[in-house]
Design a protein that fits this description.
Number of helices: 16
Number of strands: 2
Helix content: over 70%
Shape: globular
Strand content: under 5%
Order of helices and strands: HEEHHHHHHHHHHHHHHH
Radius of gyration: 23 Å
Length: about 450
């Protein structure tokens, strides 16, 4: 096998830019452009509460998550068990990148009825699963050492933030097309961003030869049996509980950012991109510190700190007033948790998957990361459900309530993650590495001894 270098890890990270850009378009702008005062597509789909305080988009995303409960483990099991010439992961990524980008455009271009909107959103999350599940499995497989696991998590965190930041450029880009209607300008802007995302997702698909870097054996366990085995891992369950809370809180904030700017700070929506640039730069400045401190202090302590830092950011949002000075304060503060929770959770899953492999002998990285992808989409779906229901009145107070909910959830997430036993996981990996090292040294000594004995016999 070829040595996995930082160059390969960076090429891999480009794919994260692509899918996070598409995800950012949906999570940040779908609700904004279909509901509220600034909606340009509101005439197509009802934004009223249907029953029990739920809105159409909330119901669509909730139904989509039930659908994901079936498709996520199926795709993960298919990927883990595959034996394609191009590897277990890359062929999936290569096949779905363009359709994934196309359906993102379709969410805004195709729906004329509620049924079509539901179909488009469900297909979006299905295609995200087909790309992200194999992609995320490669995090553990390319992270073949503790150093590489931290490095790849750092690189994809950077491209994840970059993708989401570019997604916030949507209204700025749409504003350039002055010769067409606002709705068509938005659609054209989305199409341009989606094309960029498709190219980015194809970069690792064509430039990384999976079989040259990863020696993998197809898993024989059936998909849902493999999923059950993954959730039998106590440490993984503890991680997933906190992860769902994390994605719920962050998506609530990301969905609300444009509203916080326009309704609470009374500023232009175009400031969304400016704030994300500030968040990104602040986060990047802290990447080296997180990278160095994680092995010394442990990932658990730093992740818990990240949850509390996000809670502080959301609490400031609750009380923010008129003027972009509030936005700048929020953006600067957000750099800390973005750096921490952008890097370390992926490394934690990779650690858990590696420890599980040591204990079971089955390398089910795809299933572990599929469960994490499901947690991400579940958190996002619940956030969209909550946001559209809480803000149906479109009052300033309703938007502040979403920030209150995000604050409380981050505190709950921190408490849940305290139950994760990082020491047990790392000890399991460490003992296996020590055993492997001792076996290699013994084999080397035996080889030297045999060569010496052969030399002596030849002299005689």
């Amino acid at each position: 096998m070829k040595k996995i270098t930082n160059k390969i890890l960076w090429i891999f990270a480009v794919g994260q830019f692509g899918w996070s850009l598409l995800s950012g378009i949906i999570s940040s702008w779908m609700v904004y452009y279909y509901t509220g005062e600034n909606a340009v597509f509101s005439s197509y789909i009802t934004t009223k509460q249907l029953f029990l305080g739920l809105t159409l988009f909330g119901i669509i995303t909730a139904v989509g998550r039930v659908f994901d409960a079936i498709t996520d483990p199926l795709i993960a099991g298919w990927s883990d068990a595959s034996d394609f010439k191009g590897g277990r992961r890359i062929p999936f990524m290569k096949a779905i990148a363009v359709p994934f980008a196309a359906i993102t455009v379709g969410v805004f271009a195709l729906p004329q009825t509620s049924n079509e909107a539901a179909n488009d959103v469900i297909l979006f999350y299905l295609f995200m699963t087909v790309y992200c599940t194999p992609y995320n499995a490669l995090i553990a497989e390319l992270g073949d050492t503790q150093k590489n696991r931290i490095n790849v998590s750092t690189y994809i965190s950077f491209t994840y933030i970059a993708g989401f930041s570019v997604a916030y450029l949507l209204p700025n880009l749409a504003g350039l097309f002055t010769g067409m209607s606002e709705a068509n300008a938005v659609r054209l802007a989305i199409a341009i961003l989606a094309a960029i995302a498709a190219i980015a997702m194809l970069v690792p698909s064509f430039l990384i030869k999976e079989r040259e870097y990863i020696s993998s054996v197809p898993v024989k366990t059936k998909a849902f049996s493999s999923l059950f085995k993954s959730f039998k891992n106590k440490q993984f369950r503890r991680f997933v509980y906190s992860d769902i809370i994390y994605f719920f809180a962050v998506t609530l904030f990301q969905t609300g950012l444009a509203f916080y700017i326009t309704r609470l700070m009374h500023a232009d929506e175009g400031n969304s991109f400016v704030l994300t640039v500030i968040m990104t730069v602040g986060s990047l400045c802290l990447y080296p510190a997180v990278n160095k401190l994680a092995p010394k202090l442990g990932k658990k302590k730093i992740v818990v700190t990240g949850f509390f830092a996000y809670a502080a950011v959301f609490l400031v949002t609750v009380f923010c007033g008129e003027g972009m000075i509030w936005g700048y304060l929020i953006a600067v503060m957000a750099g800390v948790p973005m750096a921490i929770l952008g890097i370390l959770p992926q490394a934690v899953v990779a650690d858990i998957a590696e420890a599980d492999f040591v204990e079971t002998g089955e390398k089910r990285n795809g299933m572990f990361f599929a469960a994490r992808t499901f947690a991400m989409k579940m958190g996002q779906a619940l956030a969209l459900l909550a946001f559209t229901s809480i803000t149906v009145s479109q009052t300033e107070f309703s938007y502040r309530v979403t920030a209150i909910v995000a604050t409380v959830c981050c505190l709950i997430g921190a408490i849940l993650f305290l139950f994760y036993n990082e020491k047990l996981v790392m000890d399991t990996i460490g003992k296996a590495a020590e055993t492997e090292k001792n076996a290699a040294e013994t084999a080397e000594k035996d080889t030297v001894s045999c060569e010496k004995q052969s030399a002596e016999e030849a002299e005689k």
